[in-house]
Amino acid sequence: MTKVDFYTGSPDKLRTACQLSHKAMQAQLKVVIALSDASSCEALNRLLWQQGASSFIPHCRLDDELAERTPVLLALDEMQFPHHQLLISLHTETPSYFSRFERVIEIVGADEADSVRGRARFKFYRDRGYELRHIDLSKKPQ
To answer: Mean pLDDT in the chain?
Structure first.
């Protein structure tokens, strides 16, 4: 069964996704980052390219011809995924395809509206018996 981690209180969800992708890549995991809109996808793409040489994150869009060989994929739509190890969700709702992945990370922002949506997603997973873990980023030292 899919394991689900909630990272809450993120001051910058895209930057958190970069950090978690880098950490996952170091652990030899392949990542799909699910985004809900093209502007967020482009912003994350730019941010991933701005990582330093020692922390470069090879990535591309899911529809790119290199997707099968790339460790981090940016996905706007539900498609055929070349791997199913880790899904990092930046959606406001639970992605319908989450259960195809071994592990899901839900990133929740620090603002109240995103927190409310995050609690609804947490309840969705909990009510269905998924193993949940919570990491509060607002309590981590900067």
So the answer is: 93
